């Protein structure tokens, strides 16, 4: 499998779709199970591509090129086939606002190896349309994918829609962190590390008592689409203390504003799932990314502090998180960090 992966990654790095497809086709002909190709070759390549982008070795265009090739290769590994009617029915969907559909598609294909009746709905399903689909299809479980922490707010709405139709919800993807904390805070039944656990745990999942659905503070939706003037206020406060920022060109200023908006949206997600690590993980990532690119890192933490001042009156819980405080505790088990099961084979 190591040689297959090396050849495949070379092909997607070029990118060369024909060569990538040839690699997986040869592996299938040689008897490699499709599930092994998905988890150990295609998903692994996606993870490494993301790491190379974060380390400054690749551009976003490079990473997207890998995804485009992998989508073509996945069609060879798991070609379209009729649904398996009559077995347990699982709907696989991305949370509202989650546009990374490839991990969910891989997860759905892994489930089909278990002869389940699987429907894959794709990226960012609007809540009302998800609810209508669940009402008409009556699945045994909804498997909800979220790779970006900023998708957790949409995930909360997706989970609520499923719960209102009495459909159990399992979740997975990088957005959910480790353990059960974020999943339970947003009302999901279970976070799974491996989607293939669903088949053996269906009875357990259906009998499980889910946590209460959260009553999200108003500041969550406000911060998720924070007004630009708030970001400008934070930036101007930061410039007043750091003259070097005032000399930014338009592109640099745009990038800094983008980072501030991302911090604000992650703070909203942190409040929603009562987990400050959503913010600290982002800040660690921004610092690592800037360091890898040889950029100054001081502006990241300074920006977070000035953003806290700018949002304090409208979003005090998020401001407290940005300053290192704790979010409001909820009554259910939001602090559970025990390892627990997922949805996607990759982030």
From TrEMBL:
Region of interest (Disordered), residue spans: 323-347
Residues covered by the B12-binding domain: 87-212
Biased composition (Basic and acidic residues): 326-339
InterPro entries: Cbl-bd_cap (IPR003759), Cobalamin-bd (IPR006158)
PROSITE patterns given in the database record: B12_BINDING
Pfam families linked: B12-binding (PF02310), B12-binding_2 (PF02607)
Name by which UniProt lists this protein: Cobalamin-dependent protein
Source organism of the structure: Nocardioides daeguensis
